[in-house]
Amino acid sequence: MAYLRKLNEESEAINKNIAEIVVFSNGSVSWSEAWHMSLPQRSLIIKTLNKYNNMKSGNPVSEEL
Predict the structure, then answer these.
(1) pLDDT single digits (tens) 47-65
(2) What pLDDT, on the 0 to 100 scale, is given for residue 7?
(3) What is the pLDDT of residue 65?
(4) 58 conformational bin, left if phi > 0, alpha if psi -120 to 50, beta if neither
(5) Closest to 49 in 3D by CA, of 15, 23, 14, 16
(6) DSSP letters along 1-65, please?
(7) pLDDT in 10s for each residue of the chain, 65 residues
(8) Taking a C-beta distance cutoff of 8 angstroms, is the pair 63, 34 a contact?
(9) What does each C-alpha distance from 54 to 10, 48, 59 come to in angstroms?
(10) Among candidate residues 39, 40, 46, 54, the one with its CA nearest the CA of residue 22
(11) Which of 17, 20, 25, 50 is the most exposed place for a label (fewest CB within 10 A)?
(12) pLDDT score of 9
């Protein structure tokens, strides 16, 4: 069970990093791409976009996603 938990945590970390790469490199996600994402993936993109917008506006950003 611990092994599966570790794999899940690593998967979440990879998704977070990919989302940050896409957003911070000024990439974009189309409407159809968003519909094909799972709910956790869409939630991650939304959180990452909020983080990005806060950084652009000069607001302090929490590291937690």
Answers:
(1) 888 888 888 888 877 665 5
(2) 94
(3) 52
(4) left
(5) 23
(6) -HHHHHHHHHHHHHHHHHHHHHHHTT----HHHHHHS-HHHHHHHHHHHHHHHHHHTT----S--
(7) 899 999 999 888 877 777 777 776 666 776 677 668 787 887 888 788 888 888 888 887 766 55
(8) no
(9) 26, 10, 5
(10) 46
(11) 25
(12) 94
What tokens does 18 get?
A: 């990919």
- Residues present in the chain in total: 65
40, two tokens: 């956790």
Tell me, what amino acid is at 14? I
Return d(Cα 62, Cα 16) in angstroms, integer. 14
At 58, the amino acid letter reads: G
Q: Would you state the structure tokens that stand for residue 39, as one six-digit string?
A: 């709910």
